[in-house]
C-alpha cells in the first residue's frame, strides 16, 4: 500500500532558486537557493543587515526578486511560481495556507478589536458565517496558546507582550496553514517569556506538522526550534546544514564567531 | 446685460457633466465608490454637499423636488436645500413622496413605497464601510477590488461579543448585487430592506470624501449578518402618538423633564397623510380640538 502522507512529505513545499534582490547598487540578497519540506523548520541566522528579512519577504511573496524564483506546492499538489500568482490568489494563500508572525505583534494583530475577532478574522475571510462556531474555534485556539479564555473579548492592546505574541500565533494558525514565516518571533520578550513561547511553538510545530521559515539573530532560538540552519552574511548564504552540526561544529570563520559570541550561561 | 447670476441649478454645465459621468459609472457598477471632483458648495461639509451636487447634476426643469432630513420635510437643513433649488433651478417642490421625482434625503428612506421614475439621493458623510476597521485607503480599495470582506464580519462579531446581538443600528453594511459591500449612509437599519429590489434609482453623494455610488432600480441589496444572528430591522415597540401607525420608523421625543416622552413617525409626510386620512394616535386629540375651536370661534 502506498502511504499518501509519506508521499506528500517527499516533495518540497517551498523551493527557492537563485534568489537575488538588489536595491539600486546595494545587493541585499545574492543567489540564495534551498528547498523546504513539509514539517521542516529552517532557521535563517545572521547579523543585522545580512539580508535575512529581505529573503523572508521574497519567500513570502511580499517582495519581487530581482532574479530567481520562488515556487510553492499548493494544496492541490501543483507547484507554482509565486510571481505567476495573481494578487487575489497570493492574498488568499497568505490568509489560508500561510502564516506570518511579525516581530512586533501590533503589525500582525488588529489592536483595537477583541482577541476573539482577531483569531476569527481569517475564518470569516474564508466564508465562515456562524458566530457560535467562529467563537468556539477562537476560544479553542486561545486555550491552545495558553491564553485564558476569559480574556477572549479583551483587545490585544490590554495584553502583555508575551500574550500578544501568542495571540498572533493563534491568529495565524487558525486556518491550519502548512507553512509559517516567522520574523524574530521572540524579539523584545524577556527570557522566561521567550522560553515559554519557544516551548509552545515547538509543540505546535510538531503537532500540526508545520513547515517553518524562521528568521532570527538568536542562535538559541535556532537551536531549540529548527532542524536546519542557514547562516547569512552580506546577502549570501555562507553555511548551511543540520542545526546541531552547524552550531556545534561551525566550519566558516564567521559562523565560528557567531557561535562563540554567545555568552556562556 | 441681464445674464442670470447662476447657471440652472447652481453648478456650471461642465461640472454637471463631470458629476453625471461619475453617476453613470456608479450605476454601471452597483455599490462601487466612484471618485469625483467634489466642488465647494455654499454650505458647510456635513450638511449635504455631496447630495446637493448629485441633485444639481440630475435635476431638470420638469422635476419635482422633495428634501427630507431625518424623515422630516420641515427641518432647517431640508428647508434650506429645498429653497436653494427653488431659487437656483426654479423647480417645483413638494413634501408629498408620491408626487416627487427627485427626493434628496438625509438619514431616512420615506415610508411610502417609491416607484419607478423616482430618484432617491442620499447625503453620505463617510462612504467607506471598512473605514473604522482599516484606516488605509489604499488597503480598503484593494479589499473592495478583491472582494475581501471578512473584515466587515469582524465588526459584526465585535458587536455580538460585546452586546450579545448585532448592535449596529444605523449605517448597517449591505452587499449590493452580490459584489460590493456598501455603507447605506447613516439610515437606520429599519430602512435596509427598502433598498432591496427598489423600483427607484438610488444615488449616494459624499461631498467631503468625494465619492459617488449608486444602486440601480431592482437591484439585490442584502444586509450582512451571521447564520445564528440574522439581520433584524429595529423599531421602538409603540404606535405613532399622532397617527397610530404600527409599522413606521419612530422618533422618540422627550416632552418634559419627568421622563415623559412620545413616539412619532419620523417621516412627517407619511404621518400627516395618515392623519388627514382619519387615523389617530394617543396624543393627537388635543391639537385637533384646538383647531376645531378656532374654526367655530372664527
UniProtKB/TrEMBL annotation, chain A:
<dbReference type="InterPro" id="IPR003439">
    <property type="entry name" value="ABC_transporter-like_ATP-bd"/>
</dbReference>
<comment type="function">
    <text>Involved in beta-(1--&gt;2)glucan export. Transmembrane domains (TMD) form a pore in the inner membrane and the ATP-binding domain (NBD) is responsible for energy generation.</text>
</comment>
<dbReference type="GO" id="GO:0019700">
    <property type="term" value="P:organic phosphonate catabolic process"/>
</dbReference>
<keyword id="KW-0067">ATP-binding</keyword>
<dbReference type="InterPro" id="IPR012700">
    <property type="entry name" value="PhnK"/>
</dbReference>
<dbReference type="Pfam" id="PF00005">
    <property type="entry name" value="ABC_tran"/>
</dbReference>
<comment type="similarity">
    <text>Belongs to the ABC transporter superfamily.</text>
</comment>
<dbReference type="InterPro" id="IPR017871">
    <property type="entry name" value="ABC_transporter-like_CS"/>
</dbReference>
<dbReference type="GO" id="GO:0005524">
    <property type="term" value="F:ATP binding"/>
</dbReference>
<dbReference type="GO" id="GO:0016887">
    <property type="term" value="F:ATP hydrolysis activity"/>
</dbReference>
<keyword id="KW-0547">Nucleotide-binding</keyword>
<feature type="domain" description="ABC transporter">
    <location>
        <begin position="14"/>
        <end position="259"/>
    </location>
</feature>
<dbReference type="InterPro" id="IPR027417">
    <property type="entry name" value="P-loop_NTPase"/>
</dbReference>
<dbReference type="InterPro" id="IPR003593">
    <property type="entry name" value="AAA+_ATPase"/>
</dbReference>
<protein>
    <submittedName>
        <fullName>Putative phosphonate transport system ATP-binding protein</fullName>
    </submittedName>
</protein>
UniProtKB/TrEMBL annotation, chain B:
<dbReference type="InterPro" id="IPR010306">
    <property type="entry name" value="PhnJ"/>
</dbReference>
<dbReference type="GO" id="GO:0019700">
    <property type="term" value="P:organic phosphonate catabolic process"/>
</dbReference>
<keyword id="KW-0456">Lyase</keyword>
<comment type="function">
    <text>Catalyzes the breakage of the C-P bond in alpha-D-ribose 1-methylphosphonate 5-phosphate (PRPn) forming alpha-D-ribose.</text>
</comment>
<dbReference type="GO" id="GO:0046872">
    <property type="term" value="F:metal ion binding"/>
</dbReference>
<dbReference type="GO" id="GO:0098848">
    <property type="term" value="F:alpha-D-ribose 1-methylphosphonate 5-phosphate C-P-lyase activity"/>
</dbReference>
<keyword id="KW-0411">Iron-sulfur</keyword>
<dbReference type="GO" id="GO:0051539">
    <property type="term" value="F:4 iron, 4 sulfur cluster binding"/>
</dbReference>
<comment type="similarity">
    <text>Belongs to the PhnJ family.</text>
</comment>
<keyword id="KW-0408">Iron</keyword>
<keyword id="KW-0949">S-adenosyl-L-methionine</keyword>
<keyword id="KW-0004">4Fe-4S</keyword>
<keyword id="KW-0479">Metal-binding</keyword>
<protein>
    <recommendedName>
        <fullName>Alpha-D-ribose 1-methylphosphonate 5-phosphate C-P lyase</fullName>
        <ecNumber>4.7.1.1</ecNumber>
    </recommendedName>
</protein>
<dbReference type="Pfam" id="PF06007">
    <property type="entry name" value="PhnJ"/>
</dbReference>
